[in-house]
Design a protein that fits this description.
With 393 residues, the protein is of the alpha/beta class. The chain contains 14 helices and 16 strands. 40% of the residues are buried.
């Protein structure tokens, strides 16, 4: 079996890119030839990543038609980018042999529709969100997201009709897309991770005076719920000092809120760092913070990569949504604390009390790591997925 994994490189950055590479490597390790084909408008020439069986192709968007320089029409520039993107893909794959194409979904438009009409019988679309909701939410003041939103409404249902099937990262997403086209083949492949690539964190002595928390944001989004955590910290008046390390991109509103709440000495905003620096930081951390505001995306269920990162390192954490993998393994409750998926404040005293006995147990890190290998490592996930693909060939 041979699979092509296609994605715009622009949406595959940070943790998302690690996830894609883990999928490709996981398939190859289990006897399925998988080649990554990534397309990037910032590249000047083809780049070959032999280690991960992936190739990066440049998309030339340097010669737009004069039309896009005129008033109003510049708002439709994304149409030109998409047209060149799909032209480049067709040129790359036209002489390749393969059984399936996995296509990491960006958004629906006329160019994608034409593409799936031609290649759709072998295409599985991978959905990491419910796009229409996401684009609508972000469309205010953004011509690009407005364009995506209306294209999604017009073309998305037709596109599903022409593809082989859909892959969702949660049951909620898979079921949503399947309902749009009855009897459409679907599979839930929740976000996994290559556990062995993440170093086991060091044990941090917990003396009941300081609690260090961390969240990994990757990109700016209010679904992380940083404001919810900050407001909750400001209402905590217990004896323990709670420090909050925010690693990645955040909005200016969160930084301003931290100052307004006078949390400057407890909240630390850290830009993207080298992986080694992040590894060192984790050795000072007691607990992780998962996503706390998926309700803002209209979602109840998710499988965020940040939580898979925590699991791999052996870090206990709290979160505020239905996690696809944790729900399927309820014995995990002894290490992870779930809160409601809404805007209510987090009871930080409850957090302190819940994690205190865990943090005093020096074996908890290794136990969480072992749990990660059983539930979120891509080896176990991919093996089940390959069986699904073999049954439909």
């Amino acid at each position: 079996m041979k699979i092509l994994y296609i994605a715009w490189k622009g949406i595959g950055s940070g943790g998302a890119n690690d996830k894609i590479i883990s999928q490709i490597n996981g398939l190859n390790k289990n006897g399925v030839e998988c080649i990554g084909l990534f397309f990037d408008a910032n590249l000047k020439s083809i780049y070959q990543d032999n280690e991960n069986n992936a190739t990066y192709f440049p998309v030339d968007i340097t010669k737009p038609p004069k039309l896009y320089s005129y008033h109003f029409f510049w708002r439709l520039y994304l149409n030109y980018e998409q047209e060149e993107f799909y032209k480049t893909i067709e040129e790359v794959i036209k002489n390749m042999k393969y059984d399936f194409i996995f296509f990491r979904y960006d958004f629906a438009d006329i160019h994608f529709l034409r593409f799936v009409k031609k290649f759709g019988k072998k295409i599985f679309i991978e959905y990491n969100a419910i796009p229409e909701r996401e684009f609508k939410k972000n469309s205010v003041g953004s011509p690009r997201h407005t364009y995506r939103y209306y294209c999604e409404k017009i073309f998305s249902k037709s596109i599903i009709r022409y593809v082989k099937g859909i892959i969702g990262v949660t049951d909620e997403i898979t079921n949503y897309q399947q309902k749009r086209q009855k009897r459409k083949l679907g599979y839930t492949l929740s976000n996994g991770i290559d556990v062995d690539k993440y170093p086991l964190k060091q044990y941090v002595d917990y003396n009941g005076s300081v609690l260090n928390m961390i969240i990994l944001t990757g990109y700016t989004s209010d679904k992380h719920g940083i404001d919810r955590i900050l407001k909750s910290m400001s209402q905590y008046h217990g004896e323990i000092i709670i420090n909050f390390y925010i690693v990645g991109m955040v909005g200016e509103n969160d930084k301003l809120l931290s100052k307004e709440l006078k949390l400057d000495k407890q909240v630390f905003f850290i830009d993207f760092s080298e992986k080694k620096e992040i590894d060192i930081l984790f050795n000072q951390i007691h607990i992780g913070v998962g996503s706390m505001a998926f309700f803002r995306e209209g979602l109840q269920e998710a499988s965020p990569l940040k939580v898979r990162d925590f699991l791999s390192r052996g870090l206990p954490f709290f979160y505020g949504y239905e996690d696809t993998d944790l729900n399927a393994n309820i014995d995990s409750n002894q290490y992870f604390l779930k809160f409601e998926n809404n805007n209510s404040l987090i009871d930080m005293q409850k957090v302190v009390d819940f994690f205190e006995p865990i943090l005093k147990d020096k074996t908890h890190i290794q136990k969480i790591r072992e749990y990660a290998l059983q539930t979120v490592d891509y080896q176990s996930k991919i093996q089940k997925f390959i069986l699904f693909l073999k049954n439909i060939q």
